[in-house]
Write a structure and sequence with these properties.
Length: 246
């Protein structure tokens, strides 16, 4: 405990120095140094099992720095940390409100990627609250945006195709939790057919992996034999394996 407290004080001192150095340069060319220290402070607070308001202030500063250097992955990771903080501290509603504010921000600047990510995060919070009908609505909105991105020249990458498929997985999970098993099957089958029509084998394989996960659960609840047989056929052809992870 004492070592953690000492480490915390040292990291705070290092943060002050890093800020002074960046300010001296007049341009925040190296905000990464601050971000790394923020991350260290975060871990110490976790070790102390403490998350004071000061830590939330740190998170806000980290977000600002990531946006300054255009690090979208770092920004999204920090947003996820904030969400996890609220959820782990038994505060899902503040997490929900936080992401709604972030959603407005991304919408105001026309950032489709940030908007879709925020929509999915809000949907996840509703799932944590077991309000699956609400979660379904938010994930559907995210899915529409991701489909638009994937169909654009800028979205032609495996990363975007994977995110799109994962969002369909969130939608499928909401249907599943609501007991609407036929909707799960229809959702995946329609998307699978559309991908086959345009010959997009990469996205088809990703979707089949998502289907596998939900079909395994559905089988325990009397799954659709037709869909299961189709998936088994593709497994035998060696296109995907049970051991392969998403």
């Amino acid at each position: 405990m004492n070592q953690n407290i000492q480490a915390l004080e040292l990291f705070k001192q290092a943060l002050v120095i890093a800020k002074e150095e960046n300010n001296t340069l007049q341009e925040k060319l190296q905000p990464k140094s601050e971000i790394n220290i923020f991350s260290d402070i975060d871990q110490v607070y976790l070790g102390l099992n403490q998350y004071p308001q000061a830590m939330m202030d740190f998170f806000q500063e980290v977000l600002t720095d990531y946006r300054t250097i255009g690090d979208r992955q770092g920004e999204q990771n920090t947003l996820t940390q904030i969400r996890e903080f609220y959820l782990s501290s038994g505060q899902p509603l503040p997490a929900q409100e936080f992401f709604k504010q972030i959603l407005k921000f991304y919408n105001s600047i026309g950032d489709d990627e940030g908007e879709a990510h925020s929509l999915n995060q809000i949907g996840k919070v509703y799932s944590e609250l077991q309000q699956y009908d609400q979660a379904l609505d938010w994930h559907r909105q995210a899915s529409v945006i991701y489909q638009q991105i994937v169909n654009s020249p800028a979205g032609d990458s495996k990363t975007w195709r994977t995110v799109e498929a994962e969002t369909l997985g969130y939608i499928g999970n909401s249907y599943f939790q609501l007991g609407q098993y036929n909707q799960v099957e229809d959702l995946f089958r329609q998307k699978l057919n559309s991908l086959r029509k345009i010959g997009d084998r990469d996205r088809e394989k990703i979707l089949l992996k998502i289907m596998r996960r939900y079909l395994k659960e559905e089988w325990e609840l009397k799954a659709s034999v037709g869909t299961a047989k189709e998936l088994f056929t593709r497994l035998k052809q060696g296109e995907i394996s049970w051991q392969e992870q998403l």
